[in-house]
């Protein structure tokens, strides 16, 4: 299930399993967020054991449609110039290889959030994903020539789009209405919790 899905497209930056994807890598920093704090966050988000099971069911639906799901998020980004700017240089030149590589990791994230255990490795990669949206690590995984930072406000606000656009895919599964609702509720809570973890590298130690 976690095999690489990217084809080598003939560019040296595309070589390897899934370029830039570092889940579980020994080189990854340990998250400053503890497993105990992750549990407290789950409580704060009202994310129950039943939600975690519904999240797994949602993950199975969405992983099978990952290309279409990511396309639908990508269309939302493409329609907003100050969002698509994240993939471009300060002069506005979009790095298409960067976009292509991030797209594959975006697909993988659906599976990682919904189907992986939320253990130390998962927690550590959430911190890395957060850092990759900031001046701390943006562009580094892909040696990209794009702006160095994504404003925290857009990261948070885009959660609304991520959540809204997932629902039709859950509905297309043909599940009963209450099951679609349960999967969507779980997805929304899990996404918000993930984005909350991603805010950690943005925020001062004393403020998070
Ligand atoms: C809830 C909102 C968001 C989600 C769920 C999300 C998800 C992701 C994921 C899964 C990755 C790949 C992580 C990896 O490298 O393994 C990523 C990277 C990236 N995202 Fe987001 N993102 C969100 C908001 C945004 C926004 C608002 C922008 C700006 C338009 C953005 C632009 C990017 C860029 C440019 C990268 C590549 C970062 C790098 O250089 O490694 N993201 N995002």
Overall SS class: mainly alpha
Instruction: State the low-pLDDT regions, or none.
Output: 1-15
CATH architecture, by name, is Orthogonal Bundle
Give me the strand/helix succession: HHHHHHHHH
Rg for CA atoms: 17 Å
Shape: globular
CATH class: Mainly Alpha
The CATH fourth-level homologous superfamily: Globins
Mean pLDDT: 93
Q: In CATH terms, what is the fold-level topology? A: Globin-like
* Number of helices, where a helix is a run of at least 4 consecutive DSSP H or I residues: 9
Separation of termini? 34 Å
State the assembly state of the protein chains.
single chain
Properties at a glance:
binds protoporphyrin IX containing FE; 9 helices; mainly alpha; Globin-like; 0% strand; 208 residues
What does this structure look like?
The chain is mainly alpha-helical and 208 residues long. The radius of gyration is 17 Å and the shape is globular. The chain contains nine helices and no strands. The longest helix is centred in the last third of the chain and has 22 residues. It has one domain: Globin-like. Bound molecules: protoporphyrin IX containing FE. Protoporphyrin IX containing FE binds next to helix 5, helix 6, helix 7 and helix 8.
């Amino acid at each position: 299930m976690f095999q690489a899905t990217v084809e080598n497209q003939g560019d040296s930056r595309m070589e390897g399993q899934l370029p830039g994807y570092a889940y579980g890598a020994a080189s990854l920093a340990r998250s400053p967020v503890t497993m105990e704090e992750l549990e407290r966050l789950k409580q704060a988000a009202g994310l129950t054991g039943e939600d975690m099971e519904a999240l797994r069911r949602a993950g199975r639906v969405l992983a099978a449609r990952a290309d279409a799901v990511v396309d639908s998020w990508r269309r939302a980004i493409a329609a907003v110039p100050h969002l698509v700017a994240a993939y471009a240089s300060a002069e506005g030149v979009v790095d298409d290889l960067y976009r292509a590589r991030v797209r594959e990791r975006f697909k993988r994230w659906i599976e990682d959030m919904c189907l992986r255990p939320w253990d130390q490795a998962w927690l550590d990669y959430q911190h890395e994903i957060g850092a990759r949206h900031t001046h701390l690590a943006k562009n580094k995984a892909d040696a990209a020539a794009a702006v160095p930072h994504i404003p925290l406000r857009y990261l948070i606000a885009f959660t609304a789009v991520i959540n809204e656009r997932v629902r039709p895919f859950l509905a297309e599964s043909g599940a009963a209405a209450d099951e679609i609702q349960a999967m969507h509720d779980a997805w929304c809570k899990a996404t918000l919790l993930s984005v909350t973890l991603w805010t950690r590298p943005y925020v001062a130690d004393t403020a998070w």
